[in-house]
Design brief:
Rossmann fold; alpha/beta; 21 helices; 4 domains; 9-stranded mixed β-sheet
Length: 613
């Protein structure tokens, strides 16, 4: 499944697993081939801030590697791609220990000098670890004074965006033992054990030296940062006020902006304070690095490894049961400009649950996102670029080279659109589209061109006709035809369906398009692809309004399943929504694609010959 040698580079991030064997942590290592002047461990933020800052640390790691450093980015326990903590515990006792394992790993490479860079609560973890074992240099980037202050901020954010079931944390900053099983922060859940551990962390309460050199980057508007400056005055840090953090962390994806000046400042400071003499290092082999990510006597063993997909060398994490899987391969596509874990780690949870049911899965980064290189030399592709469709097709050809159609594709929002288009190209065995967004302005149209011929599901928006203008025009049309409304009520169900489709075509013409995603969906299902569409009322409406008769006919045949969840959050931020999606998806995939039914698979050539026309 790995890419060709041309897709791999000595300067690409190498996937690594380290720490306890029963609770492995996942990391990505940027390192020179033979020698390095030192190592830098990057401690990311937590929750939504972790997702927003991911690209920032990808760029920082590449910059530091160019300066001669080995750089480790990693995920804490129960976050990102790392081992998912269970109540029974394992060889690690906390987030601060995770930093210790990361430092021990880079020291085993052979470096003589180590620095740590931490952002937000990651800076808290880094500082607490350095207080126990000082390093050569420490960067505290927009640090949190304590775990309680971080959790209070997250609670306020959750209430601000109306998160469902934000609970489990008292106003005084302590864990409520009478609370529910999880604590909600925007887009993520935290178990009581992790919550209790985090709430007891206090960077301002540490004593002694943290590092030989300390750089403190703070926001001028934060009062808590002033208390931290007072504490760190004991070690005489270099203190700077930074800009760019609000546009990085205090926004929702995909609007976050990498703070280029801050990235350059951190890299330049480490370049100045770290020794320049180099020493030989031993870099782990890039291939066949696997880890067991599940435990328990009654649980099927699940292993994961980093993989490169297709000629472009797209990065992914392969998840499969020990001993290999069966049935079609499952491909879970990154969402928007976020990397491969999915909202609230939904893709991590789904891929590991599917692996326990015998399926082999890959969660992948689209080009220019996460750890995948951008195509065509562009630093970042537009979210709805046709290159993302190419990415999904290439990934299918990589994971299932004998029969690229023998895949089940998973996507959410923009990636749900991408997997629908890719499924049509591949004649994929199955597709699971969650809250697909099909009404948008294609990038090629925005650039002044015509819509790409591969777009079969897109309802193109134009800047000259906004959604609100289109809705106003449509309502005006309906109000001016009261007689038609009375006739509609007297029509049969079939007649209303025809009229509904006619009304949608009139509405589409107001937007200069005659694309019918409902009819396209029915065609995809009738061609042999098992289609499972899950969405809120707003996301389902374009498919029902533009070909309702074809959709209903295909639903009755059993080839198309649509689940409408009226109050479903589009981005799946509440944990209850993610739990419901997980349950529905697991049940559907296991019942439709389990190894019991694998023998009934119709070859792609036979399916293509049986297509109408």
């Amino acid at each position: 499944m790995s890419g060709t040698p041309d897709a791999q580079s000595s300067h690409r991030s190498r996937p690594v697993w380290f720490g306890p064997s029963d609770a492995p942590l996942f990391g990505l290592l940027n390192a020179p081939d033979a020698q390095a002047r030192g190592a830098v461990v990057i401690c990311p933020p937590f929750g939504r801030e972790y997702v927003n800052a991911y690209t920032t640390f990808v760029q920082l790691a590449a910059r530091l590697e160019h300066l001669g450093f080995a750089v480790l980015r990693f995920d804490y326990r129960s976050t990102g791609d790392s081992f998912d903590r269970t109540d029974k515990g394992s060889g690690s006792s906390g987030f601060v220990d995770d930093v210790r394992f990361a430092v021990e790993f880079v020291r085993e490479l052979g470096v003589a000098h180590v620095a740590i860079v931490g952002m937000r609560i990651g800076a808290t973890f880094a500082g607490l670890r350095s207080a126990l074992d000082p390093v050569d240099a420490l960067v505290l980037w927009d640090p949190c004074l304590s775990g309680r202050s971080f959790l209070r901020e997250q609670l306020a954010l959750g209430l601000l965006i109306r998160e469902k079931d934000v609970r489990g944390f008292r106003e005084d900053g302590h864990v409520s033992r009478e609370s529910a099983a999880v604590f909600e922060i925007p887009g993520f859940t935290v178990s009581p054990e992790l919550l209790d551990e985090m709430s007891h962390l206090n960077l301002a309460g540490t004593d002694g030296v943290l590092a030989d050199k300390v750089l403190l980057l703070t926001r001028s508007e934060r009062v808590s940062d002033r208390k931290l400056v007072t504490r760190l005055a004991l070690v005489s840090p270099e203190h700077r006020e930074l800009t760019g953090q609000p546009k990085l962390l205090d926004v929702s994806t995909p609007t976050q902006v990498v703070p280029a000046e801050a990235v350059a400042a951190v890299a330049d400071w480490l370049d100045q304070v770290m020794p320049r003499s180099c020493c030989p290092i031993t870099v782990p082999a890039e291939r066949d690095v696997t880890a067991r990510v599940s435990q328990g006597d009654d649980e099927v063993g699940v292993v994961e490894r980093g993989v490169l997909l297709g000629q472009a060398g797209l990065f992914g994490i392969e998840t499969e049961p020990e001993g290999g899987g069966s049935g079609p391969k499952c491909i879970l596509v990154s969402v928007s400009n976020e990397h491969r874990i999915g909202p609230g780690r939904l893709w991590v949870e789904l891929s590991r649950r599917l692996a326990t049911n015998g399926f082999r899965c890959v969660r992948m980064d689209l080009n220019g996102v996460g750890d995948s290189p951008a195509r065509d030399g562009k630093s970042q592709q537009p979210i709805f670029s046709t290159s993302a469709i190419d990415d999904v097709v290439d990934a299918a050809q990589s994971v299932s080279p004998v029969d690229p159609s023998d895949v089940v594709l998973f996507g959410l929002c923009s990636s749900a659109y991408h997997v629908l288009e890719a499924a049509s190209i591949l004649s994929a065995r199955g597709v699971c589209a969650i809250n697909p967004r099909v009404r948008f302005q294609p990038p090629e149209v925005a650039a002044g061109g015509t819509m790409d011929a591969r777009r079969r599901f897109c309802i193109p928006q134009r800047e000259l006709v906004s959604d609100s203008q289109r809705e106003v025009a449509f309502r005006w049309f309906v109000r001016r035809l009261p007689r038609l409304n009375r006739k509609v009520r007297r029509l049969s169900r079939k007649g209303r369906g025809h009229l509904h489709t006619l009304a949608w075509r009139a509405r589409s013409l107001l937007g200069h398009t005659v694309v019918q995603p409902g009819e396209r969906l029915a065609e995809l299902a009738e061609s042999g692809t098992d289609v499972f569409l899950i969405g809120g009322a707003r996301e389902i409406r374009p498919f029902l309004n533009s070909g309702v008769l074809a959709v209903r006919r295909t639903q009755r045949s059993g080839r198309l399943r649509m689940e409408e969840i009226p109050m479903l959050d589009h981005s799946l931020r509440p944990s209850g929504d993610r739990d419901e999606i997980t349950r529905l998806t697991i049940d559907h995939v296991v019942s439709h694609f389990s190894s019991i039914r694998a023998g009934a698979r119709t070859p792609r050539r036979a399916r293509e010959q049986s297509k109408p026309g």
